[in-house]
């Protein structure tokens, strides 16, 4: 009960593992700054994380209904609908209950849950934004009006032509097909584009946005200066990442982790195992690609651990699991940090999600990149072309995979680049910079409490 007198900061993530994870780590940092963080999630997320958050961590987990039947899938558009139409009234009720004694001093809102900004404003609670990805991706999406003005994209977000281009100064080249909202059918792309334009229109009203990334993402340091706004132009951006180095909490997984794979790793030689995971949120890569990857892994002869959810396994060849039982392990979910820290893992075949990228850098693992959707193409461009700590593959044919693994494993300079990048973003100097930025934010909140 010693936390009950602390001023409260409410945290509202977008309801997915990759968004809950960094906000829980921010919550852990806020505890050390004298606040009581309250993590607010839909009931289906709350049931999975609340039992795994220890009371001594000082974080309170609370839930609100999302109005979705338990048996229905929660895809992007279902979640968007419930965030806009159902969850606001429940969040407002909870805020008013928690703030009866005036102890709610701020609400930190994941920008992908921008609906909560309106609720905070209606309740008179100061709000700050949280961006869980690279600053470069924030800059790209916030530049939508300029992309339209210059004719790179239409008013509905569709590229006017297919080509490679630097969308912003100091960014590596991206294809016009790699924009974060270009996922699915034409109708889906337009709807996602509307989601982003609405999100950033709301974000402009915020005084602060906390970014889970590090200064000087671009190797020459120019990117940061190009993207951070002056106070008169919009929110003040503070880079507070990567949070994985500073949080005391072990982030709970939304799924049960298979720790048996760690015992299997103990039997493998150093730097020989390929770890494969495409994250927690992306849709299946499709049965044909699952089959191609399965056969390519088998033909490579290399030991592997492959995270493949049960509902994604329909593409596996008949009898595959039995055939590769000695060569590799196929698991439903894995303890990723423990796995990446293991000396047997030589490279990581990844979708280039931002949390996974940061964990790979922390553990200094080489990356084999296959981006699937959203910000993953931006992350991949930095991994491959700027930091040069990975290799991109464009398919899962036997030749594609073998050539990619050969390039990533035989690059004699990659370990040096990984070590240098690790020190730059995880070292002592970087850590002091992160805590200085977090303290700048919390000192501002403490002044609000005093006033």
From TrEMBL:
Keyword Transferase: yes
Single GO molecular function: UDP-glycosyltransferase activity
Enzyme Commission code: 2.4.1.-
Origin: domain of life: Eukaryota
PROSITE patterns per the UniProt record, alphabetical: UDPGT
Keywords: Glycosyltransferase, Transferase
Pfam family, one: UDPGT
InterPro entries: UDP_glucos_trans, UDP_glycos_trans_CS
UniProt family annotation: Belongs to the UDP-glycosyltransferase family.
Name of the protein: Glycosyltransferase
Organism: Vitis vinifera (Grape)
């Amino acid at each position: 009960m010693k936390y009950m007198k602390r001023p409260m900061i409410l945290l509202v993530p977008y309801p997915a593992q990759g968004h809950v994870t960094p906000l829980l780590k921010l919550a852990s940092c806020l505890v050390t700054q004298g606040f009581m963080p309250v993590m607010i999630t839909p009931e289906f997320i709350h049931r999975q994380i609340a039992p795994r958050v220890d009371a001594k961590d000082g974080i309170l987990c609370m839930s609100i209904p999302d109005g979705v039947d338990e048996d229905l899938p929660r895809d992007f558009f279902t979640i968007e609908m419930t965030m806009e139409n159902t969850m606001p009234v429940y969040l407002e009720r909870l805020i008013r209950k928690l703030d009866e004694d005036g102890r709610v001093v701020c609400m930190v809102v994941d920008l992908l849950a921008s609906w909560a900004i309106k609720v905070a404003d209606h309740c008179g609670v100061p709000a700050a934004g949280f961006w869980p990805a690279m600053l470069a991706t924030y800059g790209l999406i916030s530049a939508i009006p300029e992309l339209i003005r210059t004719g790179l994209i239409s008013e509905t977000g569709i590229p006017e032509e297919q080509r490679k281009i630097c969308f912003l100064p100091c960014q590596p080249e991206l294809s016009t097909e790699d924009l974060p909202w270009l996922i699915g059918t034409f109708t889906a792309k337009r709807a996602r584009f509307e989601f982003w334009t609405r999100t950033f229109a709301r974000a402009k009203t915020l005084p602060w946005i906390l970014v889970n990334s590090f200064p000087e993402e671009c190797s020459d340091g120019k990117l940061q200066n190009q993207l951070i706004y002056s106070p008169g132009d919009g929110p003040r951006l503070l880079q507070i990442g990567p949070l994985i180095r500073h949080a005391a909490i072990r982030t709970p997984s939304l799924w049960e982790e298979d720790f048996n794979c760690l015992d299997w790793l103990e039997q493998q030689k150093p730097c020989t195992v390929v770890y494969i995971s495409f994250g927690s949120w992306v849709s299946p890569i499709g049965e044909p690609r699952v089959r191609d990857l399965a056969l390519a892994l088998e033909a490579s002869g290399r030991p592997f651990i492959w995270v493949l959810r049960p509902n994604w396994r329909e593409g596996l060849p008949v009898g595959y699991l039995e055939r590769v039982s000695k060569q590799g392990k196929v698991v439903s979910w894995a303890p990723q940090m423990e796995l990446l820290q293991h000396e047997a893992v030589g490279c990581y075949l990844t979708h280039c999600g931002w949390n996974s990228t940061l964990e790979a850098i922390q553990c200094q693992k080489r990356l084999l990149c296959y981006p699937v959707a959203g910000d993953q193409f931006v992350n991949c461009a930095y991994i491959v072309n700027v930091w040069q700590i990975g290799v991109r593959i464009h398919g899962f044919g036997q030749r594609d995979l073998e050539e990619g693994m050969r390039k990533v494993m035989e690059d004699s300079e990659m370990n040096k680049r990984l070590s240098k990048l690790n020190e730059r973003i995880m070292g002592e100097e970087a850590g002091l910079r992160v805590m200085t930025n977090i303290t700048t934010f919390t000192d501002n909140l403490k002044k609000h409490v005093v006033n």
